[in-house]
Amino acid sequence: MELAGRIYFKNSLYAQAKETYEKYLKISINYDMFKDSLFVDCNAFTQLAECENVLGNYQNAEEYFAIADSLFTNFSQQGKYKYIHFLLLNKRGNNLIMLGERELAMECFERAAQIETGKNDERSKLITMNNQACLLLKEGCQEAYEQAYQIFLLICQEYEKLGLKKSQMYGTSKTNCAFCEMNLGKGTEGLKSINEGIAILESLGKTKDLNYFVALITRIGLLGMTDDLYNIEKYSLQLSDYVSGQLHDVFPYLTEKNRSAFFEKLTSWGTFLLPTLAEEYKTPVLLKALYNSILQTRGILLNSTLNIDRILRKSSNDEYKSLYNQYMEAKKRKIDYAIQEKLERKILEILPSQGDFLKDMSINVDSVREHLGYRDIAVEFLAVENVDDEDSCYYALTLKHNDSIPHIYKICSNIELRDICQQPLGTLYDKVWGTLSNELQGVSNVYFAVDGDFHKIPIEYYPDYEGKSLFDKKQCFRLSSTREIVKQKTIHPQNIKDVVIYGDIDYDYSENIADSVAVQDEVDYIEYVDSVDAERGALDLFLPLKGTKYEMEQITAILKKKGLTPICRRGEEATEESVKALSYNSPTWLHIGTHGFYSAEPVTYDENDEDEEHAEYQSTEENVLSKSAMVFAGANNTLLEGNSDSNHDGFLTAYEMSTLDLSKTDMVVMSACESGLGDIGSEGVFGLQRGVKKAGANSILMTLNKVNDHATTLFMVRFYQGLIDGLSKNRALLDAQEYLKNAEGGKWNDMKYWASFVLLDGLN
């Protein structure tokens, strides 16, 4: 097994090498076979650390490097393997640089410099010099680039004297020279250096390391300085293919957590440099490459998880289904992360025989165009970070049936967007849709996907200067990605089999009657808020929502006229557990009328969590998704009395929602405040909408702001009436908005009452 790990590593198959070394060490340690006196056992930690480093898991790599360092320190003190320890310390230092631990990195480099290796002292000296230069690059200023440049030049000269021009270190030093030359405005010299460095790395087969990817990025950056359009296009296609190939080759071997870390390494191409080039040159090659990049990578982590779920749920192998159910149950109960990971690795082993979870990456710009009608347009909004002033710029890529290529338009900067939102109505419409006015002529259906802060703004509803929104003028479909045009148009609409409705929830409920009374005593001091003025959002304590009772009764009556008898969960029956019980046998429609909230506070680590790896994972997934929640029976009792069991506390978080199986659910309606908000990242919104999507639901009706209880009731009742009358989800949404604007003498005509409701992926 150790030999297999070495072979995988030598052939740059780092994901497979990582998995093999983990098994090797686990067996060795569990069966008391590990010996710290054996080089092969100790070196396995070094190899595992290097694998984690290449895959972008720098914190994991540091943990393994630290163990290996300790083991090889003992060897060094015995006069053994000093050169190996010297190299290990330098690799550990470079990994610490990636973690931003500059001082710790310096300690490693200084310790390495003190080791008498017994090898060629000149090479050891060059490695130390390289590390010093890499630290300078992290400073990112002109003076530091110049200093680093001089060091890299000297390193290259010394390797040339030693006759080592074909070594990986020489090739990497050449690419580092090029990086400095690019930042120092030496475009011609940089191109010569980068081409030489890349050629060396390719001849040695070192094309899967981060250094190689950075080198490819650097080459295109240098070509941009010289306006060499032919080679910009040529190498942009090569880099796009490289990213796609890396995802295809590596993703199938990585756990969900590791997929996230690996993908993060590759995002700079599609989210910064490629959009910048496409907007500047606007050539067919670059525009198609950019649109394809967005289609392949937007939501790739969520999509991968969903596809794995669908593949295994539909598997004819009962053993595989059982394994997957065990894994999902472990996530739901928050069982030890090591157990979750073990189950997930077993799933990855059997997955290739069941289906390709990356099949959606084959959807490209031509696929989308072929699925567009003659009066359709697809729009992908893209937030591109501007490294000069740290402000994002927003672009729109448009595509129509007769377009041979996508078109790109600059919309605004992030700062301008904030200013626009404070200006008179019509300003935002003019900036967003006005910019696309020529493209929108003759269009009836607009399919669009948003990015960045556009996730928080109902851009489809903002009116022009005459008071008409795009949603008034055309059918607008807000999508997770315009990839959905291809995916959902191949799916036949579901028949409505069953509906579950939550409302009129008893937030004071407690299994202990005395506790319930105590809660009621606390609530009495709060001034009574009528449904007309109440909001469905977070308070110190959660007040009853009268509107949800009427909402439930009216929707039930509407459905019964069509022969549908919904299951209604109200009062003390509307528990968090009852929602979780819907998993694996979820209804066609799920309606939840309650309080909802999103906390914008940053995620904090649990300093008492002994499992550091689990704590790190939680910070990027569980904790982030736990910042959004919907409120169920007993929540007030938790606030007053405390409840250590998060599975039964009356709060259904986005993370808990994500562990359910709602794959049979066509639509989830979250009739609550801020149910569409969350932390925004490269994968979109990490909040309730991600939780619901991750659970497998098709479309979501959600809110982007706090909503009024009574206005929400009027809106929701009309929305369901439209659906039962045969309107599409989109048309029913428009009808409900128009109804609310004019209801009760126009009392709810203000945008804040009707524009918060957005429909995601409601194509059918």
UniProtKB/TrEMBL annotation:
PANTHER family given in the database record: RAPSYN-RELATED, TETRATRICOPEPTIDE REPEAT PROTEIN 28
Classification lineage: Bacteria, Pseudomonadati, Bacteroidota, Bacteroidia, Bacteroidales
TM stretches of this protein: none
Protein's name according to its UniProt entry: CHAT domain-containing protein
Record-annotated CHAT domain positions: 422-759
InterPro entries in the cross-refs: CHAT_dom, EF_Hand_1_Ca_BS, TPR-like_helical_dom_sf
